[in-house]
Amino acid sequence: MSELVEKQFPVKSLLTGLRSIGYNFSTAVADIIDNSISAEATEINIFSDPLADVPYFCILDNGYGMNSKELDNAMLPGSDRTGKEDSELELGRFGLGLKSASLSQCKEFIVASKKFGKIRAMSFDLDVIAEKNKLFLKQLTESEIAELPKISELKKYESGTLVIWTKFDKIEELAKNFEESFRTAVAESKKHVELVFHRFYNQIEIFYNNRRIEKRDPFLLDSVGRQQTGRTSTIDVDNSVITVIPYTLPFANTLTAEEKALLGHPKSIYDEQGFYLYRNKRLISWGSWMRMGIRSELNKLARIQVDIPSTLDSVWTLDVKKSSAKIPDKIKERIRMSIEDSISRSKRTTKFPGAKEQSVECKVWQRINEHEGKIKYQINREIPALIALNEALGENEKRLLEIALSQIECYLPKYSITNDNMDALNIINSGDGVDEERLIEEIRQILLMCSPDDRDRMFDSIFMAEGYQKLFSKKEIIHRRLFENE
């Protein structure tokens, strides 16, 4: 019979590997906040100071805290999660988050926790561990605890936990300016936290250096009448329920300043399309179709909310960082209906302005289908202004005009226009806001270019042209005004 032999693992090598698990500063912060939410905190305060004698980053919560035994367990890599039942507040998974997230950003982290009126603290210092090549953790004395940053804030709570990061070796190694890089990392983590925990906004107050984080809503649920919500569907998997809701944002160029703020002022609406996957209401991944849809300009308004319970972690192959997952093959077809719903709505909303442009009888720009996937846009030579101008020009001037129009057509900034639309920028080359008096003056100038016999015919045709149709109801009034002196 084979013999079991106990081996001591090389702690230094193991922890070096743990530090390279793939966190960035933002995802690491989110993993610590997961623990605060699991501890039923209602307030989370984040403090940082790169100019302190020992620069620090702290996450403080008013959760239920830990006693000595619980703190000892929490500080162990792969802590014992026996008794941690799945619930909507349980955001942990492997018992690695505190350690792997913290060590990915710093060489030392300290955890101080208050429960039943007593504060206990332990330090996890890689310099000490590397020297011994064994897992030695430091139990802090009362005097050492008293010197910890923001410990006075923890003392104000009946219970809670304070996680402190120090010795930011990775930032120091890569940054030209430590303070600048540190502040940038903290600012980026704030944006990340705002989105990842946006569904907790009304339950939990999260502060960065005493300022509450901004509210976020990637689906713009309050934009009633402009935002579209599809039919909710549920999928039963292994006695657990996945909930899927398709959404479609309003047309990008109609978004108000408040709506853009709720979206987090994304650089591009295009980049945010796709699945928004939540585990116990905590956002896991977003801005991806997970190989189930086609990323395109027409799909950019589509968002699919997918809620999965923690009981299905293994089915979705959720990683340690809780920042990525994979849709199980067995539910792909069942989720496809919601994808098609959101995408079709997005296409209709995105195409509508273009369809409206093409519906005008006498357009300034004509769309010519050259076949084989080739489309050409050219200026309509039959618009009233060009007809009147041509009649007033000599042959040489007409040739120059045609050269000018052809150059405008050849150098249409199609890529810039496409990029600006993708970035949801408001292109203001539009006749919608042109003053009526200006349009009437334009009509007068066009008529002046025509011979007296052609003016009535030209006047009638003008109101069929793009830009002037909105004056059609005032046609008779304008006619009397322009012809009353003749």
Radius of gyration: 32 Å
Q: Which outline best applies?
A: elongated
Rounded to the nearest angstrom, the distance between the terminal CA atoms is 118 Å
Number of strands: 16
**Low-pLDDT residue intervals, each spanning 5 or more residues:** 355-359
Beta fraction:
15-25%
Helix content: 25-40%
The overall average pLDDT, rounded, is 83
Largest sheet, strands/sense/barrel: 8 strands, mixed
Contiguous helical run count: 17
- The assigned structural class equals alpha+beta
Cross-sheet strand order for the largest sheet: 5-4-3-6-2-1-7-8
List the defining traits of the structure above.
486 residues, alpha+beta, 19% strand, elongated
Describe it.
The protein is α+β, with helices and mostly antiparallel strands and 486 residues long. It has an 8-stranded mixed beta sheet. The N and C termini lie far apart (118 Å). About 1% of the residues have low confidence.
In short:
Helices cover 37% and strands 19% of the residues.
Write the layout of secondary structure elements.
Layout: H1 11-19, H2 25-38, E1 43-49, E2 56-61, H3 68-74, H4 97-103, E3 108-115, E4 118-125, H5 126-132, E5 138-139, H6 142-146, H7 151-156, E6 160-166, H8 169-174, H9 178-196, E7 205-208, E8 211-212, E9 228-229, E10 233-237, E11 240-248, H10 257-262, E12 274-279, E13 282-288, E14 302-308, H11 329-358, E15 365-371, E16 374-379, H12 384-392, H13 395-410, H14 414-422, H15 436-448, H16 455-462, H17 475-483
Parallel strand pairs: 1-7, 12-14
Antiparallel strand pairs: 1-2, 2-6, 3-4, 3-6, 4-5, 7-8, 9-11, 10-11, 11-14, 12-13, 15-16
Helix pairs in contact: 2-4, 2-9, 15-16
